[in-house]
Amino acid sequence: MTDGFNLLEQPWIRVRSDEGLGELSLRETLTRAHEMTALAGEVPTQDAAVLRVLLAVLYRSLAEEPGKPTAVWRGLWEAPTLPVDLIGEYLASVQDRFDLFDSEAPFFQAAGITANKTSGLVKLIADVPDGHRYFATRAGSELQSLSCAEAGRWLVHAQAFEPSGIKTGLRGDPRVKGGRGYPIGTGWSGRCGLIILEGATLKETLLLNLVLGLNESDAAADLPVWERPPLGPTVERRHPEPRGPADIMTWPARRVLLTREGDRVVDVLLGNGDPIHARNRQDLEMMTAWRHSRNQEKLHGGTVYMPRQHDPGRALWRGLAGILVDRPQSGAVANQVAPQLPPGNVVWLARLREAGAIEDAHPIRVHAVGVAYGTQDASIDSVYDDSLVMRVAVASDPVLRATALQAAAEAELAARQVADLAGNLAAAAGRDVDGPRDRAREDAFYRLGQVYAVWLAALSPADSAADAAARWQREVRTVLLPLGEDLVSSAGEAAWVGREARGRHLDSSLAWAWFHAGLRKALPLAYPDRPATSKEEDHD
Fold it and tell me: Which CATH entry fits the domain spanning 397-539: 3.40.718.10, 1.10.260.40, 1.10.132.100, 1.10.10.10?
């Protein structure tokens, strides 16, 4: 292979359809998005990075589309396909910037960059943990070269999620010292706990994350990397700040150059690119929640919000309160600072619902994707990948949203009762308390997470909030009582006999009574008209 590899024409994006898996060009992916169910890359973060490139193309294709944003969006939603003509016109205008191996402006790369040594493909591939090859999903010859299609996917992923740490020092970059490029932070997407709203097709998914008119950024200035001057080894000071969603989703955090031999990519040069800070980007970045940061305020002054990252040890259902949260109305309360802000795509969904652009009962999948980095963000420790299905109304209607969040809070409290039961049984038997308590809590969370997903998916605008809450509390009780019984039955004879603990005699019987008392407090609708026993009252 001696010609270029143009991502608009050559298949490189992995997709899933009713017929199975396949690869499509960028142009085909957009024009056939209604036929595809989802992207299907090697890792969830790769799909997220590719989706954001597709979204940037869609933003630019619609940049001059006249009309009220919600009306424009509704027209797109109701159309059988994405706007093929507009997309085609736009892609024709940037055709030459999507060649992976162009001599002057290779896609998402910097032509002609050099260094004392190359970086090696292992730096490009996220599923080969650097320094921990025994965890790799690739081995041997697969690390020696990549197909052009695969290299394109990993290139997009690297610009989005590549770790921080020491990079190859590029000649001509004044930031390089002693042949090294010192840390400037991870790729932009790696700083975010991405929230992707997904539909039944890739077309629906793209539109659910296409936020029109929510911010006041200048659409003419919101240019993706391929519409800006070709990248070189130095930082372009003419463009120090992102100007809009398309810009921030394609921010060139790294300077990269692929090396090709024949039809394979055999090496890569990967150095530092444009730095970017994460403060107060909520009007540009539409796919992450935000947290108020007092520490950043002390350093930089003013009100500061930072991207809210996913907690690797916490399932999505337990963190919904940071996603399904009202966005404060400007001027509603003087000097009020919200502790957190929802993702822009969730705010936009509520606006679409209010405008009648999307049905209340339409199901969506809230997909959380992110990266947990290692020490000083210099390596990828794990990828966060979790999702929940819910109706549009649950994400946007205040009553249903409150019902869903209250149910999650009740489950947290009920799981704590299981943990306390395990701890009390261990104390009654004279054993260590912390280990049994932690294991019981995690077991309860795991079981409740499964039933919460089913309950949430069924929660409908037709439901009474009170009936849905009662149904949920009964479900929690049904799940946790057998778990508590198992803990008691396996506690052993020593726990039944009991011992002095915390100034009183504690045994299995008392621990079980306290467990019931705790559940009744956490789940009052699951215990209608049931009087407390004397032992439960004693615990109260």
Answer: 1.10.132.100
